[in-house]
């Protein structure tokens, strides 16, 4: 099997890291370079990558989000943010309008660019024999984190990435049945039994941190109203109009 494909197929999320292991500057630079080489719409590169080494900042993050102590205990924590500030500067330079708040497409574009850059960082991390965990829950405290990092308008935190040397071996997690995810020449519906079969697969997999069926976990999650703090912050950062 191609080495790159093997790395991707063996992806695992790690949450326990050796606190004494220090990522070398060379390793960090390799990860950041790979991240910046990710696909991007029109070569717009509409993201910013904030490397957070400062222990005091990381402690504040964990205080806000105690369920993710790895943000402090990993070798490094990196924040990935959708960034339309750069193109706003370009608009000012050319003295043209910048009506990005009038529709969702610019925001979707920037978030997509950001996610692609982060995925490249994950793959590069694993290629180096290290581990990582994506932290989407930073959006729970999106305003506070943005203030700590002095993020300007038109910049939106999307997710963080803890990187380090794993201390606990993890298994490769089963994914949904292919027919529920892969479609050819159009969307094909599938029987709910496929989801029930996946529930059984995940029960057998028996990851300790999972206390509910996969389907019940997301039924419960999406039965709650979305995080209103994100909506308010998106508008405050001038991505969308009120």
Automatic annotation (TrEMBL):
Q: Report domain Nitroreductase positions.
A: 10-164
Pfam families attached to this UniProt entry:
Nitroreductase
Q: Which domain of life is it from?
A: Bacteria
Q: Does the keyword Lyase apply?
A: no
Keyword entries, A-Z:
Flavoprotein, FMN, NADP, Oxidoreductase
PANTHER family, per database record: OXYGEN-INSENSITIVE NADPH NITROREDUCTASE
The record's family statement is:
Belongs to the flavin oxidoreductase frp family.
Name under which the protein is recorded: Nitroreductase family protein
């Amino acid at each position: 099997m191609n080495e790159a494909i093997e790395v991707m197929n063996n992806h695992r999320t790690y949450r326990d890291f050796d606190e004494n292991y220090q990522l070398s500057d060379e390793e960090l630079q390799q990860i950041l370079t790979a991240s910046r080489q990710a696909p991007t719409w029109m070569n717009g590169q509409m993201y910013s990558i904030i490397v957070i080494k400062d222990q005091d900042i990381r402690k504040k993050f964990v205080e806000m989000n105690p369920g993710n102590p790895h943000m402090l205990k990993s070798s490094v924590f990196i924040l990935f943010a959708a960034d339309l500030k750069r193109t706003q500067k370009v608009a000012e330079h050319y003295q043209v309008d910048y009506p990005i708040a009038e529709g969702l497409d610019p925001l979707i574009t920037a978030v997509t660019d950001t996610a692609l850059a982060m995925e490249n960082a994950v793959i590069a991390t694993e290629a180096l024999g290290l581990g990582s965990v994506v932290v989407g829950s930073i959006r729970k405290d999106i305003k506070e984190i943005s203030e700590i990092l002095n993020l300007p308008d038109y910049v939106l935190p999307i997710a963080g990435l803890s990187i380090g040397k794993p201390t606990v071996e993890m298994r490769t997690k089963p994914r949904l049945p292919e027919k529920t995810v892969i479609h050819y020449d159009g969307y094909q519906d599938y029987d709910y039994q496929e989801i029930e079969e996946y529930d059984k697969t995940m029960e057998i997999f028996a990851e300790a941190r999972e206390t509910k069926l996969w389907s019940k976990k997301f039924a419960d999650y999406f039965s709650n109203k979305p995080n209103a703090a994100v909506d308010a912050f998106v508008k405050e950062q001038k991505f969308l109009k009120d």
